Amino acid sequence: MRKDSRLSRVLHILAHLATSDEPVTSTQIAKFQSTNPVVVRRTMGLLREHGYVESTKGRNGGWAISRPLSDITLLDIHRAFGESSLFTIGLTDEHAHCPIEKSINESLAAVMNETEALLLKRFGEITLDALYKQFPKH
C-alpha cells in the first residue's frame, strides 16, 4: 500500500518557510523535497487557497508563510488536502453479501472511525508554532 506523505512533506516545507527570512522558491523547495517544482507549486497552491502561504513573483519571489504559525493547526493542513483518509487500511468488499464479511467490516469501520476522530481532534489541538518549537535551532 502506498503511503500518503503529503502532510509530513508540507509540514517540512512550512518549517523551512517559517525559519527563512526571505521567500523560498519552488525550485529550492523541490531540491530539499527531491521532487519537481511543478509538484511544489501545485501543493503550495492548495495552501495559498486556504490562506496559509503567499507567493510573490519576480527576482526575489517565492513562497512565504502568510499567517502566524499559532493560527494554523495540523488539522488545518490536513483539511487543505481534502481530508483524505488517515489510514491506508481498507475493508474488503469482494463478498458483500456474506454476513461474516459484513459483520467484520462493520466492526473494523467502527474502530477506524473512532480512532480517526480521536486523531483529528488531537490534530486540531496542535498548532504549527508548538510543533516547530521542538526543532533544534539552525
Automatic annotation (TrEMBL):
GO CC annotation: cytosol
InterPro entries assigned to the protein according to its UniProt record, in alphabetical order: Tscrpt_reg_Rrf2, WH-like_DNA-bd_sf, WH_DNA-bd_sf
Please name the SUPFAM superfamilies in this protein's record.
Winged helix' DNA-binding domain (SSF46785)
- Pfam families assigned: Rrf2 (PF02082)
Q: What GO annotations for molecular function exist for this entry?
A: DNA-binding transcription factor activity
Q: What is this protein called?
A: Transcriptional regulator, BadM/Rrf2 family
* Species of origin: Saccharophagus degradans (strain 2-40 / ATCC 43961 / DSM 17024)
